[in-house]
Amino acid sequence: MEKAIFEQINGSYAMVLVSNCGVISVDSLCDFSIKLKELQVPVVKLSTRQTLVVVGSEEQLKKVEIMAPEYNFKVGNFGSQVRNVKGCSAGEGLCKRQLDTALNLGIEIENEYFGIQTPHDFKIAVAGCSRGCTDPLCADFGVIAKGKDKYDVYIGGRGSTVKPIHATKIYNNISRENVKNALKYVLDVYIEEGKKKERIFRTINRIGIDKFIDENIKENKKEYIDEEFLAFI
């Protein structure tokens, strides 16, 4: 696995650390901060991908890499792999607008798929309501909770570019178990059909989106409408 450790233009280094969908316990955060201070690490930064970027010398970051697992962090990855999952705050006591505990689903997905080799980098985002705080429509595989154990699934999005692309919905109101089944199916097709360095939206354009849809995954035909979200926008 290619590690997310990069040399900066000023000669320092940056290491990307990952926790489960950005969740960090208070004890881990405090204890880890003390260790970073002891190492005289000059600065850390929270990224838009819910990671912690630690900046320092090459020698400092070697020590950080060794101790990171003790505080429930792992070094992030880059290149043609499944990246860390962006999960919103839809967990117990974290967000009053959640329609289901999407955070737990995101953590389950990350634990199972993080680091798997793919034709291009593969980004996953899970949101607990239609607000989509984790930008699921800009992900290669996006999930939005629509109600209790009801999720919509989108594929083929692309953000962080001058030509962003909204993902296309392929499932409506499916269970969280079927979300995981859908992800496995999409990844299997992408790994089999995708060309080297080909982002999944390009694979979709080349072979068609229907090949990524598993007919065995059944939808709940009753549509859920988030009235509060409609009022919000």
UniProtKB/TrEMBL annotation:
Q: Which PANTHER family match?
A: NITRITE REDUCTASE (NADH) LARGE SUBUNIT (PTHR43809)
| Annotated protein name in UniProt | Nitrite and sulphite reductase 4Fe-4S domain-containing protein
Please provide the record's keywords in A-Z order.
Heme, Iron, Iron-sulfur, Metal-binding, Oxidoreductase
**A single Gene Ontology molecular function, please?**
metal ion binding
Residue intervals of the Nitrite/sulphite reductase 4Fe-4S domain: 79-218
A Pfam family reported for this protein in Swiss-Prot or TrEMBL: NIR_SIR
Q: Which InterPro entries match?
A: NasD-like, NO2/SO3_Rdtase_4Fe4S_dom, NO2/SO3_Rdtase_4Fe4S_sf
Instruction: Provide the coiled-coil residue spans.
Output: none
What organism is listed for this UniProt entry? Tepidibacter formicigenes DSM 15518
